Structures are given as structure tokens and as C-alpha cells.
Amino acid sequence: METPITLLIADDHTMFRQGLRELLERKGGFRVVAEVSDGLAAVAQAQAQQPNIALLDISMPGLTGIEAARQIAALSPSTRTIVLTMHRDERTVLEALRAGANAYLLKDADASELIEAIRVVHRGEAALAGSAAARVLDLLRRSETTTASADLLTPRERDILALVAQGDDNRAIALKLSLSEKTVGNRLSEIFQKLGVNNRTQAAIVAVQRGLVPPPDVL
Hints:
Elements: E1 5-10, H1 14-27, E2 30-36, H2 39-49, E3 53-57, H3 65-75, E4 80-85, H4 90-98, E5 103-106, H5 111-122, H6 133-142, H7 155-166, H8 170-177, H9 181-195, H10 200-209
Parallel strand pairs: 1-2, 1-3, 3-4, 4-5
């Protein structure tokens, strides 16, 4: 049998937590290892349980979901985080992504969108995702860019990063650029190190803001 994806759910609304847990466990392939109501407990349980994915509300007592994502990224780097929020403003979403969240999803998303987001993030192949992506990318287009050294990334690395920003996974990038998946993974590790980031989402944001790759078109 396939190993289930382990999850931490952090939200200060008990009914939402319970409903989310029942949805995921009924679907199969998921196992909730911790359920908490505040940001401090989310960080503690992420360290203790080492779940594959932490689902974090933004507005929580103790620590916000944004600060919890930042601390989880530092203290439990094997745990990937998804922000679940009712906040639709792109600046809040962008702040969460900069803090280390791997993806975000609005709470009014349907169940299939949530399940797919969890699976994609678990594979480590998420960039900008969700129904608010267009607004975040528009903010990046309008924000002031930081001039970056022209030789920070090689042309091939910029090609890879542009496809990451478009949402392509390693297999799709490998096919488009006639590379092996292993080569794409190795190149991404080098890109992360050069940009000083920890994941694909942060790399895409930094690259767009610094003008290293063009903002992707989102329909």
C-alpha cells in the first residue's frame, strides 16, 4: 500500500479543523498526526511529529500562520507548509510565501483543489498555485525590482527557473529542455543556493522580483 501523506492541521476554528480532518481521512492516502488551534502549538507539533505537510491558517493566536510557516521552515525543514486562508489580498499571500510557505489556498476552494495542492506540494513541485495566483503575479509585475547581477544565474538556470515560475514540475521541465530529471533537480539545488531560498515558490518570487526571469502569464 502507498505510504499516506502525514498532515498537521492548525486552525483556531474547531469545526473547520474537524471537518478538514474528516475530509482528508475519508478520502484515503492521508493521515492527520496533529491538530492544533494556535501557531505556537503548530511549530511545536511540527518539530515533534515531523509531518509531511502543515496546513496553516493565517489568523491564529500565539503566532500567526505566517510566522509559524517561517519557524517551521527553519526548525522542521522536511515539513512543507500550505497556508489556508480567507485573506484574498495579494500582499498577505506574498508575505506568507516569502516566509517559507510552499503554497497557499483560499478556504473557499473545493475539496479536489485542496487535495491536489497537498499532493503537488508533497512532491516538492509547487510554485505559485491557487486561485489568487494572478493577483500575486500582478503585484510582482508592479513592484520595484532589485537589480541583479547578470551572471548570477546561467542561461540554462534561467530557463529552468522560468518554467518553475510557470508551475512546471521536474518531469515537464526535463522534457521541455531535453534534460534528465536528475539534472533538473541538481540544477534547482544550485539555483536555490545562489538565490538564498529554500523552495521553488520562494525561488520563483525572488527571480521575478529581481528581473532574472519574466513574470509568467496567468489566465
